[in-house]
Specification:
It is a single chain. By secondary structure, the chain is an alpha/beta fold. It contains eleven helices and 16 strands. Strand 9 and strand 10 form a beta hairpin. The longest helix is centred in the middle third of the chain and has 23 residues. About 10% of the residues have low confidence.
Length: about 450
């Protein structure tokens, strides 16, 4: 006898000893879908692609970022700075040649960031238009617990007042969505029944909740046992794997030292929790925690729209953990001060390659996470970009743009397209159309465009 379809919004519920409510969302299971796996069984609603903006500050070395050949499949090869993504080449669409026509001399980083995410210039310190993630959220986020989720790896300061230096997610002018840099706060927000809007005391609350000895998962075992009776073998296995992945995050957050360092040699009576990067160095451990939390948020549809800010525009970040010669301000000293051209700044190259390794960890996690009849990367569009092209002189041409994922079949993947001198805003319009929005223009002033990038959509 066929089991009755399960609602997509089903969660496991429990209560901690402190009285705090716990909700554990579920991944997209077979029992939630129609026979073809293309729509929700109960509502007949098509399964929507998911969207991510993945942003990194300070640009690239264009001569080592841009692939030398265009085409698809074996016709093109990854560039040196994209080599960390080699295993994911079938999911990559590299867009080269674009120009950010909104960059203003003297304000290159804030205007570059605004142009790359909103397609509009600044008005004073405020953006003039909503960012692309929020444009997409207007269309696909109905019914999701969180309209969008904004996380970040390092809060290393950019040292400027413009809103576009402090986030890449904007509801509109003077309405920015600031990223959360503390993995424990993100965990509690997603799974501890917290309110969607972050509060100033979240970090303190996260520390208090971390001291509760009773596991989140232990509190929902009874509810989980009832659910398992309704599931087929494949769904039971997927739920077990899902709960174990949450358990693994709990363990990591409970044993990692504040700032993302290594676990202490001996446990103290109250285990410390991982905090946000306190040393402006984008540590791998914090990236790993944020990657897992982000994948869970998308897999469970706590949100369908995510912004992952690896580093802020013009961030004064230090990659000192990479090598002894990297203990310098990446923005001021390395990008601007090191000699070399667009193909020959070795320390800049080292920083960009580390950034791409962290991106690879994120994309690989999406690929390895089941979602409906495929996986999260197959079902998502990830827009990767920065706030400048070549950081040393703030160039506006050959802007870094990468689409990762296949957006549920709306992108082919494994392609490199070159559009010499074309408007960067066309990438934003292309994203909007890939995500199903019925729009024919986007942007303001020099950022306004009325046609997408030709040949990119499947």
């Amino acid at each position: 006898m066929k089991n009755k379809a399960l609602n997509r919004r089903t969660v496991l519920r429990g209560m901690l000893a402190t009285g705090a409510a716990v909700t554990i969302p579920l991944p997209l299971l077979e029992i939630m879908l129609n026979q073809s796996g293309t729509a929700l069984a109960q509502t007949k609603t098509p399964v929507s692609p998911l969207y991510v903006t993945w942003f990194f500050g300070n640009g690239t070395l264009p001569g080592r970022w841009k692939p030398t050949r265009t085409g698809s499949g074996p016709a093109w090869d990854l560039s040196p700075q994209l080599q960390p993504l080699a295993e994911l080449k079938p999911y990559l669409t590299v867009i080269s040649g674009l120009e950010n026509k909104l960059v203003v001399s003297g304000f290159e980083h804030p205007t570059g960031s605004a142009g790359a995410t909103t397609g509009a210039p600044l008005s004073g310190n405020a953006v003039r238009a909503a960012s692309i993630d929020q444009v997409v959220a207007d269309a696909i986020s109905e019914g999701a617990p969180y309209r969008s989720l904004e996380v970040g790896l390092t809060p290393a300061t950019p040292g400027g007042p413009q809103d576009s230096l402090h986030t890449v997610s904007h509801r509109g002018p003077n309405s920015r969505n600031n990223p959360e840099f503390d993995p424990r706060a993100v965990f509690n927000r997603l799974f501890m029944g917290g309110a969607p809007a972050p509060r100033d005391d979240e970090a303190d609350q996260a520390t208090k909740l971390a001291n509760v000895r009773k596991s989140v998962l232990d509190s929902i075992l009874q509810d989980g046992a009832r659910l398992q009776q309704r599931l087929g073998a494949a769904d039971r296995q997927r739920v077990e794997q899902h709960l174990e992945s949450i358990r693994a995050i709990e363990r990591r957050l409970e044993t990692m030292a504040p700032g993302g360092g290594s676990p202490p040699a001996c446990s103290s009576p109250t285990a410390p929790t991982v905090g946000k990067d306190a040393q402006s160095e984008a540590p791998p451990a914090v990236n790993a925690a944020m990657v897992e939390l982000s994948a869970l948020a998308l897999a469970c549809e706590r949100t369908r729209v995510l912004s992952f800010m690896f580093s802020l525009p013009a961030a004064h970040v230090y990659y000192r953990h990479l090598a002894q010669d990297m203990n310098d301000d990446f923005h001021d000293t390395i990008c601007h001060g090191d000699p070399g051209d667009q193909s020959g700044q070795p320390r800049v190259d080292k920083g960009v390659i580390y950034t791409m390794r962290c991106l690879n960890e994120f994309l690989t996690k999406l690929k390895d996470t089941p979602h409906g009849s495929s996986n999260l990367l197959e079902s998502s569009l990830v827009y990767v970009t920065s706030d400048t092209a070549w950081g040393k002189t703030h160039t506006r041409t050959e802007w870094p743009v990468l689409f990762a994922g296949r957006a549920g079949g709306r992108l082919r993947g494994d392609e490199h397209h070159n559009f010499p001198g074309d408007n960067l805003s066309k990438a934003l319009l292309t994203i909007a159309q890939i995500m199903g929005l019925n729009v024919t223009e986007i942007g303001v002033d020099a950022g306004r465009v009325t046609s997408p990038l030709a040949g990119v959509q499947a």
